[in-house]
From TrEMBL:
CDD domains: ligand_gated_channel. Belongs to the TonB-dependent receptor family. It comes from Acetobacter indonesiensis. Residues 228-680 form the TonB-dependent receptor-like beta-barrel domain. It is found in: Cell outer membrane. Keywords: Cell outer membrane, Membrane, Receptor, Signal, TonB box, Transmembrane, Transmembrane beta strand, Transport. This is TonB-dependent ferrichrome siderophore receptor. GO terms for molecular function: siderophore uptake transmembrane transporter activity. Its main location: membrane. Residues 86-192 form the TonB-dependent receptor plug domain.
Amino acid sequence: MFRKTLLVSSTVFTLCHVVAHAADVPPSSSVKRQATSQHAVPENVRKPAINVPAAVKPAPSVVRQAESAAEQITVSAARTPTRTDDIGTALTIITEDQIKTQQRRTLPDILARQPGLNVVRSGGFGATTSIFMRGNNANEVKVRLDGMDINDGSSASGMFDAGQFVTDGLGRIEILRGPQSGLYGADAMAGVIDMTTAQGQGRFKPFVRIEGGSYGTFNQVLGARGSKGRFHYNVELSHYRMDGFHSIPRYIERYYGATRDQRHKSNRNDNRGANIRLGYDVTHNFDLGLTARLIQSNYHTYSLYDLQSEAYGGGPVREQNTQNEAIVRGTAHLVSWNGFLDQVIGLGYMTNRNRWNETGLYATGPDYYRSSRLKIDWHGTFDFKKYGTLLVGAEHFHETFDSSHTAASAYDTGYHTQASMDTTAGYGQYQGNWNHILYGAANIRYDSNSRYGNYVTWRVAPSIHIPNTGTIIKASAGSGFHGPTLYQLFFSQIGSSYSQTGNPNLRAERLIGYDAGVEQKLLSDKLHFGATWYDNRVKNLIQSTDTVQMAGGYPYYQYSYDNVAQARMYGVEAFLDWKALKTLDFNLNYTWTHARDLSNDTVLQRRPQHKFNFNTTWTPVQDLTFSGNILYVSGWRDLPVIGTSYCSTCGKGHGYFTIDIAANYKINRYISIFARADNLLNRQYEEPIGYLQPGRGGYGGITVSY
């Protein structure tokens, strides 16, 4: 009896910890109590938690069962804790333990191995990184951190650049695939990547991690997490350094006749960060939360275009990009009327400051790109018990953009563009079930933007459980939109032989998408597999345009943007998870993507048709863990960099596969050592064309904790 009670208590505590990760539902004692409600956890753990003596340590098998139950809860799919089986949304959950076991230090490294995603990075750590989801453009994926929208408003496209984003401090990543604008508004056209910072619990736990290895890697992380009475905290400081990675392929060097010095020029990145999560339980039903992430980076590059410039007589060239980013959000969370109404009000702020500079004869820098985003939001969930839940919410955004450049010569004109816009939105969602067979959620949202107009979006996501079979049929359908950026609307640069101007008449891109799939559980839920078919159609795609004008008898090139394209993306996502033993897990996923521009019947660039990932985790003895990973990506169409005229898909990137292994051994309660090898077979591959990715690399280090 004592063991059974301990199992239930431990499981509920872990599930509460998962729920507390959600920035939309800040952690509190009230949330922990509600984690036992029928809408938060599986039926077999819907029991009240009891106090467990501190001296009692749960058995490893109990902990594993609790963690397994916690991984079946999604907070982002419906903005309220929901079993993953009970909603039709195609999603993937990545836990802090998975990140640590695989030793994925940067966000691109962990996302590249997930179904439905293709990650493109122009070089090594720190380089510009795009995330394509289900064949859609990278700027059509909304990325959030602790409830704050963090797509980069200082860039031309508005996409989230994951190049400088490290995984330290992250407690959970939820990837929602398919149009999510019905809950999340603009930019959630292809899906949402929702990240939350880990919450501190229990005693004071400080740690230090030091890591070194290939390409001049030297990383240090220190932090502490825990709780004291009503106050809980998690603070981590990090410094990542890479110096010595050369990203130009050999064939490009031969084409431009690179010298020995040019062949040995490398990229250098210096990244400093701070990740903070604080919380205070004011009363049993009211709590406050604060999260912050600060990033400061200096990235020095020597790319194929710098080599090209030198080959044409431009002199020694170097590029430098300096980034300063801050993301801050505070929340107040109140549960009223014995849990009938659960509401959160939040205030978030994000600012991004980028400085780009290039040296050389034809250098035109420095360029400055600055943006800010202020967000005020509220949402409340009404719990009608067996009649389901009703979610209502409202948001307001104020965004600014500022870009400037000082003229450096008679042929280099300066510019300065400032603009802002406001968005006000409201949304609602009903979620319920019928006889524990048919589950579902339906939502609708209205967005009003001061620059590009008003839009209504919606989404339905049913899930059917076939009794006594372990079979679940899932489906979803919805609409999405992506608004033009302030850069695309108002940027203005008039040169001596060209002009680049925004188009204030741009409309938002629109999407209609659906998916349907089947999942099956066998062997007492130890084997779980399934497949999903998806189909998305997009219109009003924003693309750059160019026209030739005549001025004084000479051609004058005018660049701008317009809604000129439409596209269709469809494909299959499949997965298999097998817990072969208590100490051995196998996970694999496969993605098939077909993406075409319907306006000219061409394939979309940088969308590989096939992707396969296999991962295994093995704990042969206590405190020793191994992780292995195989990633295969097929070929894709891309912009060629040499030997042909301009064409966005005339180049063909070659497919590749990589093998990674990692090991971690806990020597005692204070010291752990770890090592990993990435790209074990030293595959030389580019993604995108013209940018080598790191070859074989070995890394290792030590973690000291208390």
